[in-house]
Amino acid sequence: MTMTLQGTATRLTILLGEADQWHHHPVYTEIVHRAHAAGLAGATVMRGIEGFGASSHLHTTRMLSLSDDLPVAVIIIDARDRIDAFLPQLDELVTEGIVVLDEVEVVRYVGRPTKERHA
Fold first, then answer.
1. How far is 43 from 13, CA to CA, in rounded Å?
2. Nearest to 17, CA basis, from 62, 55, 43, 44
């Protein structure tokens, strides 16, 4: 199955802590798995090196005692209606953090060619 995505789309960014858990698994992992199951165009998790959020608690790689809960960003880009349909799943997963939507212009979306299986 080849998905095309071009022109105006929506970027969903979820900023949370690396240590945030959902049923003994990282929340960011659960978000990626659910996005995949929902057939969204793709998801990327990026680990931050420093940050703070609503709690004003500083998380940084420079202080060993705080480096176990670094900031994490999960970024998903797809058509607005598909993102909107996915948002209710975040209500139960994101208990701390921020969820942001913004409009983006997709100029290129290309996947790797699928490998043919030989019998």
1. 10
2. 55
What are the start-end ranges of the E strands in the chain? 7-17, 21-22, 25-26, 43-47, 50-51, 59-60, 71-78, 98-106
pLDDT at 66 over 70: no
Tell whether domain 10-105 is in CATH 3.30.70.120. yes
Tokens found for residue 71: 């900031």
> What is the pTM assigned to this prediction?
0.81
Distance of CA 58 to the CA centre of its chain: 21
DSSP code of residue 28? H
Cα dihedral value 13, 91, 57, 32, nearest 10: -50
